[in-house]
Amino acid sequence: MRDKATSFDIAHLAGVSQSTVSRALRNSPLVNKETREKVQAIAAELNYKVDKNASNLRRQQSGTLALLLFEDPTSDDSLINPFFLSMLGSITKASAKAGYDLLVSFQNLNDDWHAEYEDSNKADGIILLGYGDYVDYRDKLAKLEEQQTHFVRWGAHDVDHPGVSIGSNNIQGGFDITQHMINQGRTTFAFIGGADKHCPEFMDRYIGFSQALQEAGLVHNPVMQIEAISTEDSGYQATCSLLAAGLPFDALVCASDLIAMGAMRALRDNNISIPQQVAVAGYDNIPISSFANPALTTVQQNTKLAGEILVESLIQLINGSRVEQYLMPVDLVIRHSCGHVAQS
Amino acid sequence: MRDKATSFDIAHLAGVSQSTVSRALRNSPLVNKETREKVQAIAAELNYKVDKNASNLRRQQSGTLALLLFEDPTSDDSLINPFFLSMLGSITKASAKAGYDLLVSFQNLNDDWHAEYEDSNKADGIILLGYGDYVDYRDKLAKLEEQQTHFVRWGAHDVDHPGVSIGSNNIQGGFDITQHMINQGRTTFAFIGGADKHCPEFMDRYIGFSQALQEAGLVHNPVMQIEAISTEDSGYQATCSLLAAGLPFDALVCASDLIAMGAMRALRDNNISIPQQVAVAGYDNIPISSFANPALTTVQQNTKLAGEILVESLIQLINGSRVEQYLMPVDLVIRHSCGHVAQS
DNA sequence: CTGAAAGCGCTTACAG
DNA sequence: CTGAAAGCGCTTACAG
Mean of the pLDDT values across residues B65-89? Predict the structure, then answer.
């Protein structure tokens, strides 16, 4: 092990006390400009960095945010939902911009993660991300809150949910995309995605979907809503069972792009043309979607903004401010899978 | 701020000394089984977690690995190369498995990152990831080595490069994919991607490409190698200039999938059919590629294995072992863009 | 503006 | 097997 310089070494070289070195390096206004510059010059030359562990221990904070990523337990172990990957990228950048380090961890819903980070002083706060089964981890959220851990959660807002949620407006998104398809002349709709309490995001998209149909005076047959989790494969299976049921439809709203990719594959395998016979819409605008054939019409969540708001909100929480839950607006990305040619 | 229990509180409640609490919680064999269990039970009940800052300060290590992600400075700010995103996922999992926390940071090549992490004791070692301009940051690598920082780098091996590199066998990959296209009957090749010292990965792929042509007795006209960085747009531009040059070709080897996506778009825009008129191959097997039209034949890097080896190697380095550079094998993923139907 | 000193919460060599 | 004590490297209230 190499031995590193300490603030005492710098003090010795600069001919000042160690306290002064510490102040100078933290840019304290108390210290004389010349002294400060001298100290900083010596520190730079020695490649001295303040020991974070000592500094954090003393200051009782960590300058670090923890990002806990839950995965859908049923999804392939080696694959991460591209949407979360994109969120991860934006959160990483946002925390760097805010001067925080980011600790990233993949969690299993069963793990005893709820205290791990902040209690051990590894992080000042936690960002929770993932389409987990909401019912399963509500208790843990409650416990986090009870322990006064600082955390924000990405996801749907729920009236009596513990903590602060930042999410996009899934009802609006479901509504907009369905309305777009109605405007394209579609009349008989099916919805693929689990619409129940366990996945509030999908549930909200389904609510928006239903609202749009109702507003247009179209009838929705509940049989035409098929459960699916957010994987290509699940979308494929669900679409196959929908086809097997034999009821006609000319529009397929999928709760996620991954589901839509699977749905399109199933339709293709059954020689059903998209969008001529069936229009397909997704949700998320993951990178794949623009390259699909036909390019997928979908709903875009602004991951860049989402990451920033998540990080900013958490920092506000850490600083003792109250934070409101926030519903992010959502954008329609019109491509070819619903029979409309993109403007751009 | 809530106040947290300390080891002294536990000691008091358990009726033992604080030293014994510390030992018990670290599962020291020195402490009596009953004492240990009692202490651990009390700690669990109080939700007590060892303060990492204090522990790390005392033990002079952090239990944390830092992942520095460099981005191609020219790429869109909000987009991360999907290949690296996938590596990020696998590194995250591998470090969790090894019991290390992972600090993730996006770096600009110009930043003064080379000392930041280990010098400040925030991390025990660093993983460097990114297709940066290699020439630009070689000096920093040298400095890292000089300071005896523990680090591993993802990328091409270079004889006189500083530090340990883990990378996939890009020469082999370039060779295999080109040979596959030759076997499909292609004779006139072009290569898109910057093949020079600044990007050793692309350079190696180009070397493999050239070897395959040479082995097959095919001539390669150097004019048919066009510079491009790893973006869809750059691939598009490069292909357009290739087409503008007017020389015929029936096979296009791209240094990355992103480039290939752009190349396919350019060919499509020029009404050139893939693979009938021109076969196109990529490199990376990013998720998009399987959904492209036609599905892209490419070279797969095993990101799961890569993440594990990167993490394991770094930990060995931290533990004082020597680590060899490692060249990972690479797999051909045959789909439709080179005129071959996938077996699967 | 500067210095001496206390203390953040642990781990571990030392003594028993 | 257990305890008292030193010390990791800082930050900051206190005194000047």
Answer: 68
Q: Measuring CA to CA, which residue among A298, A57, A65, A16 is closest to residue A178?
A: A298
Shared domain check, B65 and B42 = no
For residue A1, being part of any structural domain is answered with no
B115 touches strand D (CB under 7 A): no
Strand pairing category for B225-226 and B189-192: parallel
Total count of domains within chain B = 3
Greatest mean pLDDT among A62-71, B69-78, B194-203:
A62-71
Identify the three-state secondary structure at position B296. Answer: coil
pLDDT of residue B343: 42
Higher pLDDT, B337 or A113: B337
* B103 → closest Cβ in A51, A103, A119: A103
3-state SS class at B11: helix
- Looking at the whole model, is its pTM more than 0.85? no
Do A181 and A100 share a domain, yes or no?
Answer: no
Answer yes or no: is B17 CB < 7 A from strand D: yes
Amino acid identity, position B127? I
pLDDT tens readout for residues B233-242:
899 999 999 9
CB-CB under 8 Å, A52 with B121: yes
Write out the residue range of the structural domain in which residue B257 sits.
170-300+332-338
Domain co-membership, A100 together with A154? yes
Q: Is the CB of A62 under 7 A from strand D?
A: no
- Chain B residues within an 8 Å CB radius of A261: 291
Is A2 domain-assigned?
no
Tell me the pLDDT tens digit for each residue of B292-324: 778 899 999 888 889 999 999 999 998 888 888
Q: Shortest CB distance from A102 goes to which of B103, B147, B291?
A: B103
Give the closest residue to A201 by CA, choosing from A138, A262, A284, A90. Answer: A284
Residue type, position A51, single letter: D
CA–CA separation, B328 and B304 (whole Å): 11
Between A and B, how many CB-CB pairs are < 8 A?
Answer: 137
Residue B212 resides in a domain? yes
